[in-house]
Amino acid sequence: MTLKRIFEISRGAIVILLAPLFLLGGCGVFGKKEPPLPCPPVYLVKQAAFLTQYQEGGLGDITDVRLRNRIVDFKGECTYKRKNTELTVVLSVVFDMTRGAANRDRRAEFSYFVAMPKFHPDPAGKRVFGVAANFRENETRKLAVDTVEIKVPIARKGALREYAIYIGFQLTPQQLEDNKRRFDAFQRR
Q1: Which residue of 48, 119, 168, 170 is 20 to 30 Å from 94, comparing CA positions?
Q2: Which CATH number fits the domain that encloses residue 147?
Q3: In contact, 113 and 50? CB cutoff 8 Å
Q4: pLDDT class for 50, splitting at 50, 70, 90?
């Protein structure tokens, strides 16, 4: 047997010996990577998805409306750090604003919340964010996007549904009652 023939046999034997290792590697035995953890669910609170602001001292009719606003979309991304014990959520919320007849300064100012009931009553369980925007001259409708980042400590094996996130407008009691009344009337149709 020549040296060349021994090399060919050895090369064939190596392929035969390594083939099972490649197959096992594909099964995740070596350097097993777990699939990324999903993001917690995000919910829009229906009765807090709309906001109507009236001018102060007005009667609450259509001529007193400063701003009508609604949350029309949201999306988020999340990453886990420190061996999956810290969650960072980047949440973008889209607002559809309509300037009312009483809005002469062309300004829109409002607040919305991002809440995680798991942490209630801790103040960190609900954060309120302010948004300010300007309408251009003769502009009556505008979309605005606000992006926030939230860091959340999580239990290593905690169920993600326990970390559900809720978003909505930060409403006065009167605004919330108005929304409930409109929502109930819409549901009866």
Answers
A1: 119
A2: 2.60.40
A3: no
A4: very high
| Most distant pair of Cα atoms in the chain: their distance | 105
The answer to whether residues 95 and 132 touch, using CB atoms and an 8 Å cutoff, is no
Close Cβ partners of 16 (under 8 Å, ≥ 6 residues apart): none
Lowest mean pLDDT among 18-27, 87-96, 142-151: 18-27
Distance CA 106, CA 67 (A): 10
Asked if 70 and 45 count as a contact pair (C-beta separation under 8 A), the reply is: no
Evaluate if pTM is beyond 0.85.
no
| Averaged pLDDT score across all residues of the chain | 82
Distance from CA of residue 134 to its chain's centroid? Answer: 24
101 within 8 A of 159, measured Cβ to Cβ: no
- Report the alpha-carbon distance of residue 96 to residue 44 in Å, rounded: 15
Question: How far apart are alpha carbons 156 and 105 in whole angstroms?
Answer: 50
Cβ-proximal residues to 170 (8 Å cutoff; 6+ apart), any chain: 110, 111, 112, 113, 128
> Is residue 183 a contact partner of residue 47, using CB atoms and an 8 Å limit?
yes
70 and 27 in a common domain: no
Please check whether residues 59 and 22 belong to one and the same domain.
no
Helix residue ranges per DSSP H, 27-123: none
Q: Specify the higher pLDDT residue, 147 or 29.
A: 147
Residue type present at position 142: K
